[in-house]
Amino acid sequence: MTAAINQHLIDNISLILKKSLSADATLLDLREKDKAKFTAVFKADAGFRCSADTFQPYVEEIADELLLWQKSQDEQLLVTLVKKIELLLKTLANFEQSHTG
Fold first, then answer.
1. Which of 73, 75, 39, 46 lies closest to 61 in space, CA to CA?
2. Would you tell me the crossing angle of helices 2-32 and 56-72 to the nearest 10 degrees?
3. By the 8 A CB rule, do 89 and 16 touch?
4. Domain that holds residue 83
5. Phi, psi torsion values for 23, nearest 5 degrees
6. Measured between alpha carbons, how far is 19 from 95 in angstroms, rounded to an integer?
7. Count of domains in the chain?
């Protein structure tokens, strides 16, 4: 079970990484056109320790937490990690939907 959970987490983080690279490129383009003036992708109460105006630092945070979970197998850390992954996937999907076409 743990191996399956681990692989599922890795797969989701890999997907988030790919989507975040594209989203960050779009954000850079929007900033150059003076259309992205926010200072953080997520609000302070979203559960992330970092605060950034691109997705990459959030991806790094969940990747670091995956490594911690792999070592500890701590259930609370897993719950927190899964919530962050879900939030990132949802936010990236919404961003992608609103900025493509």
1. 46
2. 170
3. yes
4. 2-98
5. -65, -40
6. 10
7. 1
